Amino acid sequence: METRLKINEQDPEGYTALVAFDKYLKSTSISPIQKELIKIRASQINGCSFCIDSHTTDARKMGESERRIYSISTWRDTPFFTEEERAILALTEEITLISQRVSDKTFNNAVNILGEKYVAQVIMAIIIINSWNRLAISTNIEPVI
Fold this sequence. Notes:
The chain has 145 residues and is mainly α. The protein has a single domain (7-138), classed as Up-down Bundle (AhpD-like). The chain has 8 helices and no strands. The chain has helices spanning 7-10, 12-24, 32-46, 49-61, 66-71, 83-96, 104-114, 116-138. It is globular and about 45 Å long.
């Protein structure tokens, strides 16, 4: 598969805006591992091979275990994730699959566990990775060997 076009070259202003939005994540209180869980799970759902490769690599560098990385797609069926991470992963799934709606149960559970400000930041993180997924998938960006 060949990359269709380089967004950063064809629309540098738009690309720069997305990069700035992504940099905003550094100012949030979301933990680095939680950010990677969001990025990996959304990328799995969207089928973004570039982002899955990139963010599983980043998670490993942060000390995330192979066991947890391999279990992200089946997080409901494992004891490997905290209550906070489960709330984040549930919200990530429902926002990524937005046409199916975000349930009151998932949203309220996340707010009860994490608080409104943290949930707001998590929502922004989910929106950001979904934007990157769409950019990578639509332009055929592949993982680098």
